[in-house]
Amino acid sequence: MSHESKSETQDPFHAHDHDHCAASVLRRAEEQARQEGVRLTPVRRRVLEILLESHRAMGAYEVLERLALEGFGKQPPVAYRALDFLVEQGLAHRVRRLNAYAACLSNQRDHTPAFLICRLCEQVAEADTPQMREALAALAAAHDLTIERSTVEILGICARCAKAEQAKAQDV
Amino acid sequence: MSHESKSETQDPFHAHDHDHCAASVLRRAEEQARQEGVRLTPVRRRVLEILLESHRAMGAYEVLERLALEGFGKQPPVAYRALDFLVEQGLAHRVRRLNAYAACLSNQRDHTPAFLICRLCEQVAEADTPQMREALAALAAAHDLTIERSTVEILGICARCAKAEQAKAQDV
DNA sequence: GTTATTTATGTTATATCGTAACGCGTCAAG
DNA sequence: CTTGACGCGTTACGATATAACATAAATAAC
Ligand SMILES: [Zn+2]
Ligand SMILES: [Zn+2]
Ligand SMILES: [Zn+2]
Ligand SMILES: [Zn+2]
User: Which residues bind Zn(2+) (chains A, B) (predicted)?
Assistant: First the structure.
């Protein structure tokens, strides 16, 4: 079983090999840094690792706390700069609804996925479908807008949390 | 010429009768307030009017300044409360990318349109197409997410601004 | 190898956005 | 006339984000 390109898009909301997620993103980060001549410095790498601990989106200040504990700088720009770097490199995404950041799970350098956010566990999945791309393009075309960036975020409750809620309701 | 239901969706990026925009939204606001037993108080109404001066999204503090000048309260909650009211009533929308608010241009009470935002003139158009709704539903379904809210924002350059940019470039 | 240049990290300070909590005034129900 | 709900105003604070500057590390030039 050595299908390399198996997991184009992992889905955090369902069972998956998360170590694989983390490892593959880190690997991509290193390769990409080498190729593009940018530096994956200790802070930057560490921030990516922190984001990769789970698929939960983290606020900049939450990341900063972790950095401070580990001997990095204690002031906001330290976190924001590392996060900005990761976002620029397509290694992390900003989730606007949560004012938070999540590691990117795709292997593509530049992409603008839609985010699926569970309101309860705050995990974030990304999805990039032709259907959505077409819908966006159609909207832009209809209004003569030259599209530069787009944000698609879907907030709801994931299957796991929905099940948990149901169980809780029956307990009462 | 008395086609009442002509303008389901005005497009701020193109020539249109803006007085009509403003008047029709205010009319809807009044009707709706009566019907739902909520109060369109002076501050609330004034905030809606301010938003309706153009299709540009305005930050809460920008609205607040205007209110202060006109003798209303000078503190943030004054603006935020009025804006929250308008958003709840579906009379205004929050544009997350801009941390700003824009008057709603639709006649529908509850809807979640996509926003088209011009980066240069900061005007905002709304659009609600079946195609986009389906794309959102498909994404949610594919990930077993029970959808509660969604955000679709497209940032770019509107036709008018694109033209202006071109002209400027040729001048040089 | 030493120097110059760029890039990254850290700091202080401040800007920007948003909310909690409380008191007062208004108005309508009882 | 009291009571209770609601809206508006305040003070105070919390949360998010960036500007500006000093230092240090890495890279490039000589
Ligand atoms: Zn994973
Ligand atoms: Zn969940
Ligand atoms: Zn208009
Ligand atoms: Zn424009």
Answer: 118, 121, 158, 161
